[in-house]
Amino acid sequence: MDTEKTLTPDIRHPEYARLRFRIALTVILVAILPMVLVSGIILFQFDRFANRMVYAHLGELVLKHRQNIDFFLKQRLSDISHLFRSFGVEPLRHREFLEQRLRVLQEEYSYVFVDLGLVDEQGRQVAYAGPYELQRADYSGAEWFKRAIRRQAFISDVFLGLRGHPHFIVAVKRTWEGRDWLLRATIDFVAFNSLVENLAIGKTGTAFILNREGEFQTRAPGGAPKLTKQQYLNLFKKGEDALRSAASTLNTSDLLLEGHGYADEYLDRYLPTGSMFTVEKISEGGTRFIIVAAFLKDNQWLLIFQQEMADAFAQLKQTQLMTALVALFAVPAVVALAFLVAGRVVRRIARLDFEKELMNRQVIETGKLATIGELAAGIAHEINNPVAIMVEEAGWMQDLMSEGVESEENRREFERSLRQIQTQGRRCKEITHKLLSFARKTDSRVQQVQINALVQEVLELLSQRTRFANIEVKTALEENLPLLEASLTEMQQVFMNILQNAVDAMEKSGGTITVTTRREGERLRVSVADTGPGIPATNMARLFDPFFTTKPVGKGTGLGLSICYGIVHKMGGTIEVESQVGKGTTFHVLLPLSTAKG
Amino acid sequence: MALATILLVDDEVPFVETMTKRLVKRELEVIPAYDGPAALARLEENPRIEVVILDVKMPGMDGIETLSEIKKRHPLVEVVMLTGHATVESAIEGMKKGAFDYLMKPCDIEVLVAKVTEAAARKRKQEEKIIEAQMREITSRRT
Predict the structure, then answer these.
(1) What is the distance between the alpha carbons of residues B54 and A268, in angstroms, rounded to a whole number?
(2) Domain count, chain B
(3) Are A389 and B18 in contact (CB < 8 Å)?
């Protein structure tokens, strides 16, 4: 069960779960953040752009429409002014002639003119042509007459008048034989209405005209006014503010009317009113409206276009909704994808980690084999000595046998030899056991290790080498050190490697190796100091690199220290090296006493 | 009279003791020593020593060093090297430094005795030649 577990990468380890979460989060951030930013910026910019477009479009439409209406009104003035100019006052005093002119005008302008009338300066209608019985009608008291007689040209508000029917009047003044005469015409309300209402956009966009009293000069929008009268009246004030700010800039569309001469007063005062203005209003019902308005007729009328906000921006809203929907579907997709990708990456990493772990184990094993190889030479000699003694003792016994064992002296000698063989045999056994204890397969299981005993065991294995290389071994081992949580075989390997290096360094010259163990807080410090030639600075940086060696070919693999580093690092410890060329080298191995990781 | 007088040098005391007994039994005079400096001291004391049996691997002064020193001070004394692991390098080095021969430990006692006798014979022959040469010089001076 245990081996089974170590043979497959453990993907469910919390470390991997965290890694997966982190990768997924990064992917999500990287993918979604720019998306949100970009779509946010686009939406915002698009919103502003679309807003401007809608307003500009409406503004243009309203201006054009205003121009149309304006042109219509001026054209009507011009028509009757033309009658005055062409024929003078005299023929117009005859009803027949007037009726004839009315027919001509009606035929030409599809019955826009309802009637024609000539009024003298006392307000009496001298001649009348039209459907009503208004011959000799007296307008002296009529509001429109009082105002028209003071101007060259005049357009009235809509009123009921004598006929009890909404209509409005256009009138021009002319002086003949020292008296003022007015030629007036009634404009068909329905025809004018349809001209104004011509501007209908979307579902709720309607146009209408309002006078300064807040009275509708055309039919109310959509049958009933959507805003209160006061709200509409406020528009005039807004418009005048807009006028003032635009007073300096003339709109070229208005200059088209310049130089007609017949409606100077109207024209003069109208000229600077070129600008239209836009406001947003909320009705009592809570509906938001866009209102685009422009002055007409001497600033007395306001052409108003109104449209519900929702209607005007319907397309924009639809686009925004689409974008939001796309984002809504994209986010879960990105999140799901991120986790999928992260899962794959982590599985891959776990696999690699696992392979690395296997490789590490193999390297440690290989390094150990090399160490054993090196040890073997020393051990062979060590074993050879007792073997040689045993052979000699056996030979001596043979020598004695040829003399016979009867004599007391020979018997004693015989027994001594046998004891010596036994002694030397035990010596051999000890040596092989020591070697075997090191050579057995690396067991990375953590157990309790007495570091001093371990150091001494390793030193004993090397005792033969140190003895022949004239190396003095000193130990300063602190007593009662706590037990170390570590793999026994791995620890053996670490100190065997470091100590072997020390012996190698002093093989020729001899010297002293000092091994010190000490507790430092929550760590154990094991120092191995030699008095060898030291490590040159150039080699210092590569000391723990695998396959880096200064030993002759066939002697060192260059794996020893790199394996030591790997083992110690895995335990959460560190290896430090101090070295002075010509003085010696000290390796400090610092091992954590508890909570060894890995 | 012994076949030859030999100096047996090895750091293993039981080995030297038993070997001594066996060589004595084979009519050799054996002087034991347990390290290089002791060997050189014995050589100084006993000019009778003809052959040195020398272990290569010894703590302190090793076999090769001892060999050089012996050859320097007593060029005529023959040295038979004895080693646990006869590597090519140490064999070459020993021979270069004037060792008579090399034997692997553990070795057959009869082979060792034969080698030692051979070495002793060579030493005597060398000495004879020297004496001969000296004699010739003396006689030629007379004539």
Answers:
(1) 140
(2) 1
(3) yes
